[in-house]
Amino acid sequence: MANSPLKSDALLHTDAHSIAEVLPILLRKIVRLLVGTISFPALIDILKAIYVEEGQNKLERAGTKPTKSALALITGLDTRVVSTVLARNCDTTVNPEQVSPEFTLIDMWNSDSFFQDPLSGEPAVLPIEGRGRTFQTLVLRAIGRNITVKTVLDRLLKSNTIRVLEDDIPRVELVSLEYTPISNDRAQLMDITFLEASRVISAGIHNMNSKPEHRVPQQGRWTYRLPPSKYRLFRKEARELLQKQIKEGEKLLEKFEEPDKHPGQITVGIGWYQWGDHELVTKGEEK
User: Fold this and answer.
1) What is the pLDDT along the chain (287 residues), one digit of tens a residue?
2) 171: which strand partners?
3) Residue 171 is inside which H or E element, if any?
4) Torsion angle of alpha carbons 247, 249, 252, 257, nearest 10°?
5) Which of 119, 232, 241, 277 shows a CA-CA span of 20 to 30 A to 259?
6) Is the CB of residue 285 less than 8 Å from the CB of residue 208?
7) What is the C-alpha separation between 127 and 240, in angstroms, rounded?
8) For 277, left (φ over 0), alpha (ψ -120 to 50), or beta?
9) What 3-state DSSP class applies to 158?
């Protein structure tokens, strides 16, 4: 018997409630990695492009023409926003100066003649405070009134982008155009983290769209009853177990892979990780 409208509405409400509960858990981890490295407006621009592109793909898979109106309905975006994104071919590229306010400030310092040395054409050494050609004015024009000069100074000093000259009038010098809010090591780990997370989600999407006999392994095991005193021992033995399985997985991949790269080959893989309340480990004791 077909579902009644009331039953269908209840199921829809249950689905929406489930997503609303789980999504913040995933997004919080993503934001924890992103905050301080990419601005919210830049992230929104990327999400808009991805939403429209994935909306197109979903409509086409369903045999529906991806009109602007249909895309606006499925994404929740205004048709004018959809038109803008489509005009850019759903491009997710973001210019460095758009990534964060710090990038915008450095770009203005380097390219705006008002903040350049008139003789050399290089970014001028600026007095920190005051009107006119000062760092305070640069912050005001590049970032706005809501962010204090000290906050910006501290961020740029921490990344070794600027140097403060303690003269009679404190001045600030731009020493590097390469603003790096995170270390190279952290950037590499961030890339790996997002890549592995995308693979786990890919497995989930595949399983949701496949018959049970065609689904791939996507499971986890955990306990809520681990005493903190045994966390280090568990982590040690878990690492040894995973290292053994990783070697076995490498042999399996080598067994099936062809010796040379050819068109038509596909990518497959296996993943291993151990997770938990890592904050239990005292800072500086991570091994």
Assistant:
1) 445 554 455 555 666 677 888 889 889 999 998 888 888 998 999 999 999 999 999 999 999 999 999 999 999 999 999 999 999 999 998 776 667 888 889 999 999 999 999 999 999 999 999 999 999 999 999 998 888 999 999 999 988 899 999 888 999 999 988 777 666 677 778 888 888 999 999 999 999 999 999 999 999 999 999 999 999 999 999 999 999 999 999 999 999 999 999 999 999 999 999 988 755 544 444 44
2) 127, 165
3) strand 171-174
4) -100
5) 241
6) no
7) 56
8) beta
9) helix
- In sequence order, the 6+-apart residues with CB closer than 8 A to the CB of 186 are none
Q: Which two tokens stand for residue 32?
A: 């924890």
Beta strand 162-165 with 126-127 is unpaired
This prediction has a pTM of 0.68
Distance, CA of 273 to chain centre? 20
- Measured CA to CA in angstroms, residue 264 lies from 162, 256, 258, 268 at distances of 50, 15, 12, 13
Which helix (H) or strand (E) is 127 found in, with range? strand 126-127
| Token pair in block for residue 204 | 């989930």
In total, the chain counts a number of residues equal to: 287
Check if the beta carbon of residue 141 is closer than 8 Å to that of residue 104: no
> Tokens for 42?
């830049």
Who's near 177: CB < 8 A, 6+ residues apart? Answer: 106, 110
Taking the C-alpha atoms of residue 14 and residue 24, their distance in angstroms, rounded to an integer, is: 16
Phi, psi dihedral angles at 4 (to 5 degrees): -75, 155
Query: What Rg, from alpha-carbon coordinates, does the chain have?
Result: 26
Q: What tokens appear for 93 in the block?
A: 């590229």
| Residue 123 to residue 107: CA distance in whole angstroms | 10
Three-class SS state of 172: strand
